Amino acid sequence: MLNIALFGPPGAGKGTQSKFLIEKYNLHYISTGDILRKELAEESSLGLKAKSIIEAGGLVSDEIIVQIIEKTITDNPHAGGFLFDGFPRTYIQAYILEGLMIKLNTKLDCLISLEVGEEESVHRLLERGKTSGRSDDNEEVIRNRLKEYKEKTLPVLNFFKERGIYRSINGVDSILNVSGKIEEIINEELSKKLLNIVLFGYPGSGRGSQGKALAEKFNLEYIATGDMLNDEIKKNSPIGKEIKELYENGNLVSDEIVVRLIEKKLQESGNVRGFIFKGFPRTLVQSYILDGLMKKHNSSIAKIVEIEVPTLDLIKRLDARSKTDRCMPYDTSTTRIIKRLKEHEDKTIPVIEKYNKLHGVVKIDGRGSFNEVFERTAAVVEHSFRDIR
After folding, report:
1. Per-residue pLDDT tens for 31-48?
2. Does the pLDDT of residue 141 top 90, yes or no?
3. Alpha-carbon separation of residue 59 from 42, 52, 72, 134, 148 (angstroms)
4. What is the value of pTM for the model shown?
5. Hey, which CATH number is domain 195-388, 1.10.3720.10, 3.90.79.10, 3.40.50.300, 2.40.30.30?
6. Which residues contact 357 (CB under 8 A, 6 or more apart)?
7. What are residue 113's DSSP bridge partners?
8. Contact in structure between 171 and 178 (CB atoms under 8 Å)
9. What is the H or E stretch that residue 381 is in?
């Protein structure tokens, strides 16, 4: 999701550039005036509240405005993001927007300010006034509007400068050049967005082989807890010694150790486009841990994928694997295989159900050859990259 605030004085060209952004990046346009008029026309509960205030000669409060904006965002879940025009107008509204973005588990990616000098703005608006028929396109009104913009907007721009997301563009340039510079800024922001995938599936579904192949194809960092634990043991690291001792005493590796390893992996990963998790989270507790880890690293889970294979096929696959060098401890007998499948059903299915309510889960048919299944999983990942753009 891409969220942008577009700023600029009257006459800066925000309307023209807004059209470009909406079409290019599938953004939903949020103008407080437009959405307020929509609520009034629909006579919604918020619209009726606003109507009574307006009829009494008052100004619609920030409390109502933010509720209308929140409703607009939640009513458009398939938008590629949101373009804010005319909000936030004040320092307080900047805090309100930041809080709203946090509540909705997203953020404002950048504020783009079209910089145009006062005389240029006056000239443009006076020219527009010759054909627009707008009564406010006269010099006295224009200069008052520009004065108000400077007084109210400067603190808002400083707010976002402090957060490092303020970007300015020379708005006096040609429309095409301004659009090109905006596109450069947005492409830079999009390059920072990571595609984080959790790959689910019963043991024997092919998660491991599919996950590794997806990571290689799309430059994702593959994070498999089992592999990380074994790597630490092989390196004989302090954590590896701790893990080995737990194994030898028949104990499970604690979430604390697993989280330390995952966090280390997140910190050390270089120029990757995202992460693909296999084997974590296995439990509801671990799912909350992962959500927290992602948030700490200014990211989030973008896609949940479950590879589905019929139970009888799973048992056949795991039995066949037990006769190879890829044999896992739970492959050694039918009883152990069934116990492991039951454990997945009891502990991990609730995790998938949780994510399904939050994000939706993409289910992949895991039957067929490796290449057939990979073609299906790769198509989902490819589509997901388009979604975050």
Report:
1. 988 888 888 888 888 888
2. no
3. 19, 10, 20, 23, 17
4. 0.60
5. 3.40.50.300
6. none
7. 7, 168
8. yes
9. helix 370-388
